[in-house]
Fold:
Amino acid sequence: MPPTRPLTANRDSASPSNPSPRRSAAATAPQQRRGSPQLQDEQTVRRAQQLRSELGIRVSAGSAAETGEALRRCPIPLVDFAQEQVGARLPEQLLANLEANKLERPTPVQMQTIPCVLQGRHVRGLLARGEVRRHLSWGCDHVARLPVSQVLVSAPTGTGKTAAYLIPAIAQVLLARGAERREEEVLALVLAPIRELAIQIESVAKMLMRGIANMKTALLVGGFPVPTQRYRLRNGVQLIVATPGRFLDIFTNYSSGDGILAAIRTCIVDEVDMMLDVGFRPQISQILALLTNLNGNGVQLLFFSATLSDDVEGMVQQILKNQTEQAYIRVNVGGNNIKGTGTAHVSLNPIAQQQVRWVEDKAKKNELFTFLKGKVEESTVCNYLGLLRGSKVGASMLAEAIVKCCGIGAAAIHADKTQQERLTLLEAFVNMENPVLVSTNILSRGIDLLHVQNVVVYDFPKNLSDYVHLIGRTGRGDSTGNALTLINLEDQEYFGELVPLLRSASVSLPREIYQTLHANGARLRSHTSNIAIDEAKRAFRVRNQLIEGIGAQVSDWKNWNEQLRKRRRVGPKN
Structure:
């Protein structure tokens, strides 16, 4: 392959989502020798740590000893897409597509994830707290076959996690073509929880693969005919994007699937926290079992999400333990990482300008209408949960009210809409035909609706992770955005976790939130004090009863003893 020229960067200004790395650090970053599985020397490790510190990247592992090993194994961040890493460069056709789409400089999560994947390690990615896992290399000439090491990556929403796994996955396909594999074989699989996200991922993949010979995708999701999707597979593809249910439906209920499954060398699970939290775990385990049974340790597994709870992390570890006994590496990228009482690791996107307003339920509509009237020329996504009862009908009614009261085009999208209706609504929103989109929770994850300028949290989600994902629909990439949260006493169960999260991002909070926390704290202290008093009273009563019982026994003994002495003085009767 001819040498690839460096790409020129038009984004020199630093931003939280894409800080401009210091070229001096990049220039001194040593290139790893081709195929070298050796640990990096201490000087290289220190230099890499300095670069990670500048970029807000943190690498760790389960223990101090494992962290030291992870730092020596973890590749140096990739500060330029054209930079050679772990004995390989991104293919020139892929670099050309990146440049054509203005992706000229990697974001921090891409800087660390891409070399991790190219190095051939298991990667579990958590973006916004992006966590990346690394897996075995494919055994091609360009990548050293290093020991498997799993990686967790976290970074704020909108920082480029889709490209972070698609770029190296596509590069692996192209690099593997010099080996024994046929070009028409499937080499990569992406699993997403909802079809809208899967559709978006496929569109990004097509953008990155445009103009590259024999590079095709297949979309396997519900709402589309199965025969059409099977026909696409039979014609040969290099990347499958699927929802777990449809993937299993096609590959377990129809024949001739083993050949395709045996060719998969990279499996990416996006939004892994949602996948495992809402009941996809059996399906994910079944899919991974199918792949590993056919490919053994040759499958590279990548897990990504914007948030990760301890429970979900434990599930992922258990799943990976069934596939490999290797330790994992954590990579945290940027953001204000908070671990709440609900054990969820969350991180806010600093690009989004956030407002939190205390609004009673009856006044929410007027507050929303006032906000929208000042944003007539801007795109807005508004969530509506309706306390999880009748939310689909309520979302449609709210959209109609926006049209009537604000004179702004608005539409509602929810699970009762057909796939074609959803796509039509999303297209109308992107084209600003309907600049306001009222949604249930189906748009809260991963979907990039092309520069959403405003997000209104009309109903607070059921947990903090969903809230972070929801406001992450705006302020993606280098774009700025606004997030308005309407909150009241009905949401007080989330205040304890919400306050430190928002304060870490310097968000001004309504005084009612602090008053509620203070009142709840006072009630808790009073309740605790009452419990202590009640326990003390109970102990006092028990003690008195015990003393009274002992006193009665002593009195009885004294009376008996006195009677005994009297009987002895009197003596026995004749």
Notes: Residues 1-38, 126-149, 339-344 have pLDDT under 50 and may be disordered. The domain at 345-509 is CATH 3.40.50.300 (Rossmann fold).
